[in-house]
Amino acid sequence: MTDVPTAQGDSVKIISAGKSDVGRVRSENQDSWFASDDSGLYAVADGMGGLSGGRQASETAIECVRAWEEGNRKPKDDRDPAAEPSIPGIIGSLKRLVATANHEIKQVSVSDSADAQMGTTLVILLLNESGYFVENVGDSRAYLIRQGSIQRLTRDHSLVQIMADEGLVDDAAMRDHPKRNILTRHLGHGSDAVSDSFYGVAQTGDVFLLASDGITMHFSDQELLDLIDSAADPAACVERLVHAANEAGGEDNATAALVRVCKASERQIAGMTVVRAEDPEAGRGKEKRT
Prior knowledge:
The chain contains seven helices and 16 strands. The chain is an alpha+beta fold. It has a single domain, classed as PPM-type phosphatase domain (Phosphatase 2c, domain 1), CATH 3.60.40.10. A hairpin with a 7-residue loop joins strand 1 (about 1-5) and strand 2 (about 10-20). The N and C termini lie far apart (about 35 Å).
C-alpha cells in the first residue's frame, strides 16, 4: 500500500496492479500501460496502425505519461501548500500531456515512413488529494466500482458509440459489431487528439479499472463487475480479467490496470465534472489495425 502525500499531510492510500497479454490471435502485443502508486498516476494505451506502428505509438504515449509523472513529482518536504494546483489546473495539465503525446507520436511517424499512419488510444487516471481525474482519447475505458455498482466513466470515441448514441445498436451489439474498431478520435496520424476530461470525488473503497478493448469487447459492464472482487488483491483481479478475456476468445491484446483506494482524502470538493469536446473526426473514422 502506498501513501500519496499531500501538502497538508492528508495522504491518499492506494494499491494497484496491472497486466497485459498478447491474447490468442495477435502475433504482437501493441498495448502498453503505466502505474505509479507513488504519484497516483495510471494509464493504458492500445496501439493501432498495423505492423510495429501500433506498439511504437502506444509505447510513445506511455513514455510521455512517465515523463509527466517524473516532472510533477516533488519530495514531500518541497511541497508548497500555496502552490497546490486547482482542479481546472490539473485538468489543463493532463490535457497538455495528451497533446504532447499526440505530437510525439506524429514526430515518430514522420521519421518512419513504414509506420506513417501509426496511432493509439490513451486513457489516464490520476488520484490525489483533490479527487480523481480521468482523461481519454479512443476506446480504452475507465470504470469506477463503488459499493457494489459499476459506472463507465468514459465514452468511446468510435463509430459504434455514435450508433449507440443514436439508438441504432445496444451495448451487446456494440461488442460484436463488424465496425467496432473504427475510431473517431485517437492519438497520432491525422488526429487533433481532443480528449474528454472527468473529475469526481474518490471514496474509501473505490476501485478504478482502466482497460483496453481486448477486455471490454468480451464483457458487459455487469460481467466486468462480476469478475472484479473489490475486496481482493488487485493483482488477482487483473489476472482474472485477462484470463477471462483469453477464455472468451482472446481476439485482441488484453490490458487492465486496477486501482483500489484504501483511504480517500478528506480535502476533496464535492461534485463531479465532465468535459467533453465534440468529435472533430466524427465523419472520418479511422480503423484500428494490428
